[in-house]
Here is the input.
Amino acid sequence: MTRVWEWNRPVTVREVLEDLQKERSIAYTTVMTVLDNLHQKGWVRREAEGRAYRYEAVSTRAAYSAALMNEAWSASDNPAAALVAFFGMMSPEQRQALWDAVRMVQSDLPREPAAPAAPAEGTGRAEEPAAPEGTSEGTREGTREEIPEETAEERGGEAAEGAGGEPGASPADKGR
Here is the structure.
């Protein structure tokens, strides 16, 4: 399948054979058998061209990977735990790609009038999606690095309500 996806167009057995022979010795009949098996399983479709066939992938590599992940996740007796374990295996780059994908899917979903998250106060932006289970809200996106929370002493000893007793006010607001 990798070779068929790499060509990204209908290919013949001969083309795949020549491509594979750059790396190792392989028989024409082996490639023909594998492509025929992929056709019987529904992974590729084929069209006759003279005495040969042209084979084309039925789905993209990304769709295939997604189907495999969905199948494995659905087979779990505890899907949430499976996701947490899977997220724990991810590299920082993979976690960033996951966050990007979640944002894309969320922006494409139709929303009912009450469904959109309220913008964070004063930002005009909707809140970020909740952190995946097993991670803390106090972590930087894509890493497990803890974000230190400011203590009252670090804020100059001010009360939790901030300057002037206003909820949510910051020390920078003092004197405004």
